[in-house]
Amino acid sequence: MTHSSPSLTDTRPARRFRDKLTRQTVRLGGVMVLVTLLLLFFYLLTVVVPLFHQASVSLSERFTLDTTGVPQYIGADTRNQLVYGLDDRGVLTVAKRPQQFETPTTSTVQRAQTVLQQPLSSMDKPAISRVEASTPFLAVEKTPGRVAVWQLRFRTQYQSDASVVPQLSTMSAFGRELVVDAKAQPLSQLTVAVPDSLHGQTIPPVLAAVTQDNRLVVYRGTQKSMVPLSQAVDHIALSGDGQRLFVHQQNRLAIWRINGNDLALRETVNLDNVIASPVTKMSMLAGGRSLLLQHQSGTVTQWFDVVKNGEPSLTEVRAFSLGEGVARLAPERHRKSLATVDETGRLSLVHATSEKQRHFDAQFTALPDALAFTPRANGLIAVLDNQWQWLTVDNPHPEVSIHSLWQKVWYEGYPSPQYVWQSTSADDSFEAKLSVVPVIFGTLKVALVSLIFAVPMAIGAAIYTAYFMSSALRRWVKPTVETIEALPTVIIGFLAGLWLAPWVESHIASVFLLLLLVPIILLGLSGVWRMIPRYVRRRLPDNAQIVVIIPALLIVGVIATYLGPWLEQVWLGGDARQFITHELGIGYDQRNALVVGIAMGFAVVPTIFSIAEDAIFSVPPHLKNGALALGATHWQTLTRVVLLTASPGIFSAVMMGLGRAVGETMIVLMATGNTPIMDWNLLEGLRTLSANIAVEMPESEVGSSHYRVLFLTAFILFVFTFVFNTLAELIRQRLRDKYSNL
Q1: Could you tell me which residues are beta bridge partners of residue 139?
Q2: 178: closest CA among 223, 215, 137, 212?
Q3: 716: part of which helix (H) or strand (E)?
Q4: Within 264-314, where are the H helices?
Q5: Residue 482: per-residue pLDDT
Q6: Element containing residue 524 per DSSP (H, E)
Q7: Taxonomically, which superkingdom (predicted)?
Q8: Burial profile 209-222: b = 16 or more Cβ within 10 angstroms, e = fewer
Q9: What is the DSSP string of 304-347?
């Protein structure tokens, strides 16, 4: 006869209504959880997707300036109200940009209002140069062999409409003018560099020029140096710090070191050995560390110093094919992006480090005479036949690409391509390094190390508690271990960072000796226990093993603590850390993966223990009794019946511990040092996805590349958790189906 539950046979309307309401409430709760997860997933996507949007360029306006020469250097102020141009005759013209509210056409060309026009030279074709610092600096040959450096400032007046007023003044660091060639011959090349101040100390600017008779003249402030050259010079360029001078002569590139009055040739590079196409122009990338060479074939190559054999050496790092003979190139002021226009008028935008490129076909009808970015890189200015074109540029995240996020990148100052996460620096020329690989590596590393510590202890304790321990003692042990799970992780991280890490550093030998002795002692005690006759073991009280094991482990801990210093004196030269770092060449950080593995293992053990113990204890008694009745030993029953039946629950326990380790924040934040490096060395630090978000999100600018990449790491963490949980559920179901018939 079948007996049904009273709730199923109760026909009262009130009871049926409560049952239906409960079912619908539970169903609604499950649906809301799924909806919440989907909303979180799509919200993260909405923040991350803009990182991979392509740049866009659109023509905003056309206008003309009252100037007779051909502009050589052009630009704008930070408010985009004024534009300026320095033409080939040495005339500086500053004009107010006209306001235009309709789509420009060939017939809608306005005339800009000139607010400043001043000739800076008395020559027809003077040598000129410009450097984009906080304000533009213009070096112009006033008379043959004599150069003056001008600073163009833009001051904002807030009395009426916050208009911008230009101010032109000579640069006092060089004096009123520099006598480069006493013979009063025109200069063939001219370049200038204005380094930023360093630690409050003013660094003198540098000016370099080449005379008609091939003499290289360098001014560092008012100090002059001169070196004769053997052949004509095609191009020269100065690094941003003014300490390196690049001189291009036919197929040779000479690098000169400038240090006060000392001007010395550092090295010479034969360009024929690198690229066969001749060099047509030479310029510096933003920050003044990388040299850009434009080649006749349309290729642009990037060069910067790489330390080889202890000395810096100029090395070609990247090459970009940007069109059919790149004729105009304009780098951004603050980012490693540049715009190029080839002979067909095709515009290209490229970020040198991330190698993110975008080409725009037929953007110009002819080759522009000059090309420049606005200071904030939200506009591009081009001049064609005295007609100025203002193009609006939308390129918010050029430094982020699939290459920069997931592959090795060769950054300035690094000896080779590497995975690097470094989002901020005190250097103005710094570029963000946003590879997510180091933080993903750190997350997996800390999860693996913590599970190596936690899984053997937790599973072993669960087996002993559920299968061998007496019921009376189990009622005390299990709740006690589960109570540890309620301990705030910030307390564990605090103790690990401020107490455990210094203790491990001062007792390295003892720690490794303890890790070696504990398994050996446990295995030895197990062997001794099995050697005791069975009739003797039956007479011993329940859980007699604990009375022996706990004191033995305490004694091992004391022995390891006292033997560690002796081992250091005898075998490790008296200092284990110095032996590891100097003799073995292994890096050591006080807050390292070993410390966080111990601390994280302590936090993860209760989670794994509780779930695994419930799974083992829930194995039906008739399975165990049947195996024992058939003559199986307790160990055979455990390994061949109990553990197989409980394997779905044990696997779920391990996966729950893995999820806890992957998502843990406070312990890794306080006990790892947060160094995003990729090294399997347990004595080095690391940084995880969750800790990286907690550390850097409060300091990131909303909407910036850094901000969105942090959301990308959160999305990766979300995906990791989803994938791990899905795999765990699939494997658990397969294990349940496989061993459900036992």
Answers
A1: 129, 149
A2: 223
A3: helix 705-739
A4: none
A5: 85
A6: helix 508-531
A7: Bacteria
A8: bbbeeebbbbbbbe
A9: EEEEETTEEEEEEEEEEE-SSSEEEEEE-SSSSEEEEEETT--E
- Pair 357, 348: CB distance under 8 Å: yes
pLDDT digit string, tens, across residues 550-564: 888 888 888 888 888
- Check if the beta carbon of residue 692 is closer than 8 Å to that of residue 631: no
The DSSP bridge pattern shows strands 56-64 and 110-111 to be parallel
Helices (H), 532-665: 534-539, 544-571, 576-578, 593-617, 621-629, 634-637, 643-663
**DSSP code, position 202:** P
CB 687 within 8 A of CB 665: no
Cβ 143 vs Cβ 120: under 8 Å: no
Q: Which residue has the tokens 């809301």?
A: 32
366 and 384 in contact (C-beta within 8 Å)? yes
3-state SS assignment for residue 412: coil
**Length, in residues, of the chain:** 742
pTM of the model: 0.87
Coil, helix or strand at residue 426: coil
DSSP-assigned letters across all residues of 620-650: -HHHHHHHHHTT--HHHHIIIIIHHHHHHHH
Longest CA–CA separation in the chain, Å: 122
The half-sphere exposure of 121 on its side-chain side, counting CA atoms within 13 A, is 28
Q: Which two tokens stand for residue 218?
A: 């360098």
What is the secondary structure of 2-43 as a DSSP string?
----HHHH---HHHHHHHHHHHHHHHHHHHHHHHHHHHHHHH
Q: What is the pLDDT of residues 238-282, one digit of tens each?
A: 998 889 999 999 889 999 999 877 889 999 999 888 887 889 899
Cα–Cα distance, 706 to 715 (Å, whole number): 14
Cross-strand bridge partners of residue 148: 140
* Lookup: tokens for 715: 């999305």
| Distance set, CA 391 to CA 58, 67, 232, 374, 704 (Å) | 5, 21, 38, 10, 22
**Residue 396 vs residues 335, 380, 434, 707: alpha-carbon distances, Å:** 11, 14, 15, 12
The SS3 assignment for 273 reads helix
